[in-house]
Amino acid sequence: AMLRLRLLTWDVKDTLLRLRQPVGQSYAAEARAHGLQVQPGALGRSFREVYGAQSRRFPNYGHGQGLSSRQWWLDVVKQSFRLAGVQDEAALTKLAEKLYRDYCSSHNWETLPGAAETLSRCRQLGFRMGVVSNFDSRLEAILSQCNLRHHFEFVLTSEAAGFAKPDGRIFEQALRLGGARPEQAAHIGDDYSRDYRAARAAGMHSFLLRAAGQGEGPEVPPEHVLPTLSHLLARIEK
């Protein structure tokens, strides 16, 4: 069956870009530069705990609760270090500011295999392209730094949209921005519920990036699964 697609929307984290190293390692390296010894493993664990709690308490970076995403992240970083035993508040403030800036650059992000080639090819084929990501306002800068921004007509973050995936309203905004009806659009992402299932619930096509041996998730028709990004072209060739 030929998919009559006009618009492709893309998740970013772990679909197009991934962290160069685990958060605990980056945070520990930055702490060392400030003369503080903290175990990467401990920092990684506290980060996951703090990030989870902050996300539940202030969903989507505290949008609608009076927080800026910058403040949201500075709190997460400081609390992660506190939980890992760092008490020096002046150092925490400096660390948080520095890490907030560092995660805005290609210093901490790398492109997934096949991403740049696949995006270029999709553009050559004439697809309209956009990003739909549960990310904060730094995403434009990150995509520019990693030399991917030029592939997209729009970058829609959950912070800007006011809704986070799997909420269908972020996909509705993306369809408006991309000038397409749901059945003319496909979303590509690595998360079953936030990307694959949510886009389908909004009436779009979608493809799930799922590397072989990545643990068995819910059943997805094999023609909707991408073992690598390079498999996308065969699925959507016009």
From TrEMBL:
It comes from the Eukaryota. Pfam families: Hydrolase. This is Haloacid dehalogenase-like hydrolase domain-containing protein 3. The gene is Hdhd3. Belongs to the HAD-like hydrolase superfamily. InterPro entries: HAD-like_hydrolase_domain, HAD-like_sf, HAD-SF_hydro_IA, HAD-SF_hydro_IA_REG-2-like, HAD-SF_hydro_IA_REG-2-like_cap, HAD_sf. The lineage of its organism: Eukaryota, Metazoa, Chordata, Craniata, Vertebrata. CDD domains: HAD_dREG-2_like (cd16415). GO terms for cellular component: nucleus. Transmembrane segments: none annotated.
